[in-house]
Amino acid sequence: MPLLSKRGTVSAKDQTNLSYTTNTLWPFEIDKCHGWAYSNNVFSKEECEKIIKIGKNKNLKTALINDGKEEKKIRASKINWLYPNKETDWIYRRLTDVVILLNKEYFGFKLFGFTEGLQFTKYEAPSGHYTKHIDKMFGRTIRKLSITVQLSDPKDYEGGELELTFGQKPDIMDKEQGKLIAFPSYALHEVKAVTKGTRYSLVAWITGDAFL
Length: 212
What we know:
Elements: E1 3-6, H1 12-17, E2 36-39, H2 45-56, E3 61-62, E4 75-76, E5 78-82, H3 89-107, E6 111-114, E7 118-124, E8 128-133, E9 143-150, E10 157-159, E11 162-165, E12 170-172, E13 180-184, E14 188-208
Antiparallel strand pairs: 1-2, 2-13, 3-5, 4-8, 5-7, 6-14, 7-14, 8-14, 9-13, 9-14, 10-14, 11-12, 11-14
């Protein structure tokens, strides 16, 4: 499966030219952490449908914001959690293999593993969404890398785009079924409103050392 990435705001050519700019700083090392990366076909169509079935068979609850409150203006979705067991071990194994490869190639974080479970999420028309936010939280588990897997066939819904913002204009992620998007947990992102149909996704955060 191909592993590809998108740099944040500085291209490879621009980074080379940084050595020739006139300033009062002398960087020890150029930042090699990409803004985001992706892997296609992490799960097949049949496997995505199987994960959706597993997620829907569990008790979906209203998603809350960080302070434990329901605020539909900020976040409108239903979620539940998938933990490692005989039914889900194959999902964790697949995600682990892909995350290790992506992290080695594009982020270089020291990661420990999944410590919060996998979040199965349902965004339903006419207004399922999650406004701009970051996954990193003060005083909580140290989230280093965030991942999202597109479970729904893009023909089954409209809207619901995942957008990552590193500058003035957001990067809009592709909706290809089975695709995994990875990005640092401090990155600003949002899920636009689903205007038709239902979007299912699998979200997870990989824990690691503190950002120092």
